[in-house]
Structures are given as structure tokens and as C-alpha cells.
């Protein structure tokens, strides 16, 4: 009788062990998890957070709150890990409270752009030719042609080290947008000197000079680039 009970317990243990093992391999093989609902995760998601079966939630994701010491130092992490995302609670060195991700070399703040101020900028200063002998002048059409985009890209790329400089600790270059990613606006020009001012979608400006013009202190243009 005792031997029969012992064998029954052995079989029960084996069945339980087999069930746990199968469950483990099923979960491991699926490699996808839903938290907050019993519904399967989205096919393209490793981790799917949803509070209801319909996929909506009344709560959010609370990221780890970490005290960074500098954007260049991994601390309090052991090393920089590309893709690591945290919420920094410290205000020290060059970091302030907010969301940061790690690009593998440093912490980068996730900036929230203000649509009213962060999507446009003034074009770098250039000299607009008014001399008919300049290469930008077409004698047949009496028109000057200036590539605004090329002038912007050249200056922002800092291609000429003899006429450009940055601070010694600058870690990144200035981003240069594609010509097709920008709109171009001449928001002011001296209409006593310039006429027929036009700008193409590629950022090339053409203009003519008013007959008998006189250059004064208001003879200039203000040009704005706006990111699309």
C-alpha cells in the first residue's frame, strides 16, 4: 500500500514538473508579454502595456527616476548603454530634470519643441551682390541669382576652418537640414533697391535692381528658413 502511494506521488510530481516545464518553454518561445490585461500583446510588440482588453489604459508608464551627474558620464549607471531611457531628477552640471536617452556615448535630453519658436531660424549673414560684374549676375536677364540654401549649408557645416570656430568642448556638429525639408521666406527687403524678388522650392533666390537705385542703411534683406 505504501509503495503504491509512493508511486502515485512520483507520477504526480512528474506530471507537475512536466506541466511547469512546458509552460516555461511556451512563455520563453513567445517572448512577448502583456501587462495589465489578459489579451495577447500586439504582434510587433515585445512588451504591450494596456489596462483593458480594448487596448486603452487609465494609467501611464513610470520610468526609472535617476540622478544623473553629467550628460557625458554614465553614472549612476556602470557604462553608457545605447537605447537606455530614464527620467533624470537632478539639476547639476549640464543636465536638468527631464527625460533622457543614451546614444551609447552620452545622455541626450528628449526635448519638447515649441512649435512657435523652434521650427524656424534666420539665415546666416551673407553679402548680396549688386555689382553687374559679379558671377551671380546674368546680363541677358539682368537678374542676380543667389543660392540661399547652399550659403546656409556651407556656413552651418563650418567648411572653412580659417573663418569659423566653436567652443573647445563642443561635442556635436550643427545639424544641416535638406533643402527639401525647408521653406524659405524673405520677410523684408529694401524695395527701393530690389525688385522681382523670388525664391524657388530649392532655396535659390533671384532678384533685379531698381533703375537708379541708391543704397542706404535700410538696403538689406531678412531671410527666414522654416522647417516643414
Summarize this entry quickly.
The chain is α+β, with helices and mostly antiparallel strands and 228 residues long. It is 17% helix and 25% strand. It is elongated and about 80 Å long.
Structure description:
The strands form four sheets. This protein has a four-stranded mixed sheet with strand order 3-4-5-6, with no helix packed on it. It is elongated. The protein has 228 residues and is an alpha+beta fold. The N and C termini lie far apart (84 Å). It has helices spanning 2-30, 148-156; strands spanning 33-35, 47-49, 65-66, 85-88, 98-102, 107-109, 120-122, 137-138, 143-147, 182-189, 194-199, 204-209, 221-227. Among the domains are: 60-112; 120-159 and 174-227, no CATH class.
- List the strand order in the largest sheet: 3-4-5-6
Q: How many E-type strands?
A: 13
What share of residues is helical? Answer: 10-25%
Biggest sheet character: 4 strands, mixed
Low-confidence stretches: 4-9, 18-29
Please specify the SSE layout and strand pairing.
Elements lengths: L1 H29 L2 E3 L11 E3 L15 E2 L18 E4 L9 E5 L4 E3 L10 E3 L14 E2 L4 E5 H9 L25 E8 L4 E6 L4 E6 L11 E7 L1
Parallel strand pairs: 1-2, 3-4
Antiparallel strand pairs: 4-5, 5-6, 7-13, 8-9, 9-12, 10-13, 11-12
Question: What characteristics describe this protein?
Answer:
17% helix, 2 helices, alpha+beta, 228 residues, 13 strands
Amino acid at each position: 500500500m505504501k509503495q503504491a502511494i509512493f508511486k502515485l506521488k512520483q507520477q504526480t510530481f512528474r506530471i507537475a514538473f512536466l506541466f511547469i516545464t512546458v509552460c516555461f518553454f511556451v512563455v520563453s518561445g513567445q517572448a512577448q508579454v502583456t501587462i495589465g490585461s489578459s489579451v495577447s500583446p500586439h504582434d510587433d510588440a515585445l512588451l504591450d502595456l494596456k489596462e483593458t482588453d480594448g487596448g486603452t489604459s487609465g494609467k501611464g508608464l513610470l520610468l526609472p527616476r535617476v540622478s544623473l551627474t553629467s550628460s557625458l558620464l554614465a553614472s549612476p549607471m556602470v557604462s553608457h548603454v545605447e537605447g537606455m531611457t530614464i527620467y533624470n531628477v537632478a539639476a547639476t552640471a549640464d543636465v536638468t530634470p527631464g527625460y533622457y536617452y543614451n546614444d551609447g556615448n552620452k545622455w541626450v535630453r528628449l526635448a519638447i519643441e515649441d512649435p512657435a519658436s523652434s521650427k524656424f531660424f534666420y539665415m546666416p549673414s551673407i553679402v548680396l551682390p549688386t555689382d553687374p560684374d559679379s558671377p551671380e549676375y546674368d546680363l541677358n536677364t539682368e537678374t542676380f541669382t543667389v543660392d540661399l540654401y547652399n550659403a546656409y549649408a556651407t556656413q552651418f557645416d563650418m567648411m572653412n576652418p580659417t573663418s569659423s570656430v566653436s567652443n573647445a568642448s563642443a561635442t556635436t556638429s550643427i545639424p544641416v537640414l535638406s533643402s527639401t525639408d525647408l521653406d524659405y521666406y524673405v520677410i523684408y527687403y529694401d524695395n527701393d533697391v530690389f525688385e522681382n524678388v523670388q525664391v524657388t522650392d530649392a532655396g535659390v533666390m533671384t532678384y533685379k535692381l531698381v533703375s537708379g537705385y541708391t543704397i542706404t542703411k535700410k538696403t538689406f534683406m531678412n531671410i527666414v528658413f522654416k522647417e516643414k
